[in-house]
Amino acid sequence: MVINIRYTFARAANATTNGVALGVADQDILVYKLIIGLPVASGVVRLYNKTVAYSTDTSDLAFEATLPATITYQWTTANGAQTQFDFGPQGLQLNGGNLQIDQAMQVTVIWEPKDEAQG
């Protein structure tokens, strides 16, 4: 059995530079998990249902998370904490996909092309 899981990592803010594409245009992908390794107060993470998304884009927004304005000790990496969003074994299906973050917060997206998915 071949597993084709991929990951995309964004360390720095990229919302003003239009994010980073996950797959390619018109490629169905499945996003399984999004991990924020360094949560930041009021940080925003977005996943788009397209490969090209602009900084002020509101169309084809598939997922958005805004972290709390006050990050308490439970949210910091001082105790090894990280924030995870799990989209389950079926994943969140996107057309190519685009990841945007508005602050430096070490975000990893775990995904694979739908046509290579196992199961």
Task: Give the tags.
five-stranded antiparallel β-sheet, 0% helix, 119 residues, four-stranded antiparallel β-sheet, mainly beta, globular
Question: Can you describe this structure in just a few lines?
Answer:
The chain is mainly β. It has strands spanning 6-10, 20-21, 28-36, 44-48, 61-66, 83-86, 92-95, 98-101, 107-113.
Plain-language structure description:
The chain is mainly beta and 119 residues long. It is 0% helix and 39% strand. The protein contains no helices and nine strands. Strands 1, 3, 6, 7 and 9 form a five-stranded antiparallel sheet that branches.
Mean pLDDT: 88
- Please report the distance between the alpha carbons of the first and last residues: 11 Å
Q: Which series of helices and strands comes N to C? A: EEEEEEEEE
State the secondary-structure class.
Answer: mainly beta
How many strands, which pairing sense, and closed or not: the largest β-sheet? Answer: 5 strands, antiparallel
Please report the total strand number as a whole number: 9
Low-confidence stretches: none
Rg measurement, Å: 14 Å
Task: Provide the helix percentage.
Answer: under 10%
How many DSSP H or I helices?
A: 0
- What form results from the Cα inertia axes? globular
Proportion of beta-strand residues:
35-45%
Structural topology:
Blueprint: E1 6-10, E2 20-21, E3 28-36, E4 44-48, E5 61-66, E6 83-86, E7 92-95, E8 98-101, E9 107-113
Antiparallel strand pairs: 1-9, 2-8, 3-6, 3-7, 3-9, 4-5, 4-8
